[in-house]
Amino acid sequence: MLKSIVVVFSLFVVLSSCKEKKTDQAVQQATDKTPLKYATGFRVSSAANHSKLVEVISPYQGANTGFTYLLVPDGEEVPAHASDVRVIRTPIKSIVCTSTTHIPMLDYLESSELLVGFPTLDFISSKTMRARINAGKITELGTDKGMNLELVAALKPELVMGYTMSADYGQFGKIEDFGIPVFINAEYLEKHPLGRAEWIKLMGLLVGKEKEADSVFHAIEAAYLQTRDLVSSVGIRPRVMSGIMYGDAWFLPGGQNYAAKILQDAGCDYLWASDSSHGYLQLSLEAVYDKAANADLWIGVADMKSMKQLGDANNYYTRFKPFREQQVYSYDKRKGEKGGSEYLETGYLRPDLILKDLVRIAHPELMPEHELYFHAKLE
Does this model's pTM top 0.85? Predict the structure, then answer.
């Protein structure tokens, strides 16, 4: 199985405030830092009684505060902690996940059997998980925000791994009212591709496979860096455009976005690389055409399956050079049993595979034997 800047863990001022006269042993003893190379969204320190103190720094875009978790091994006494620190017993023996991006972390740590529930099962592509679904071992919980919380309570998972796009903690608060711990995973906010992959180290802590998680990550990192080095001295970088229209706006990655970073590492000249935003841009079709009419490659056209489908969706697309020269690529080559996207499920954990695809597309002479894994050229 696959898988330096040390992120220094800062003690929470709020937990050691002068208002708190009572000693907080867990925080005071959280001095042994777990080094992270790329991830900036969480921090880990060793605490009292062999526990780990985990801070999710920014659980959603623009968050002013984060969440703190105390991971306490079974059999150990829970150290003293502030009231806003959530306690999780480890290793967990069952989990409900809410994003398909959580699934590969379990698979790669050979902990697939821990998953007992998921919002919409058809979205899951993992063959291992599909077999468990078909055997009736994973319960469908309803659509995302509309999860059936009574079903969640009935499953009695030892942890729910959630994510949120806003300060709305609604359903997660209700789940915690059932006595079920919730952990907010904010991997999607990481700006470096390997930062997202490094969240497997957090899953390793939760399932009791810290060393295995480190090994998986290091293998992924090595593969990514080796591929990146192949293009470090390329002279010609193809001009790349991305995205398509949704309604009246063309959505495409901002210049500092995760996707833009991978394109850069693949030896591409992403036409919006000078943009300073980390999210997605919403532009007019005319604005995109002015900049990208003569692009060399068009990479990332959602779930478009053919050039005809793309042209039929908007005749204006046919005016772009990549369309005329049939240099358009989707990332949806691999689909799960029920149509789920393997790219959207596994891409966060395997940026090395994405990078290899992009190098093969942009500089085929450098990786002539690589068969596109996630990407496919539209015909």
Answer: yes
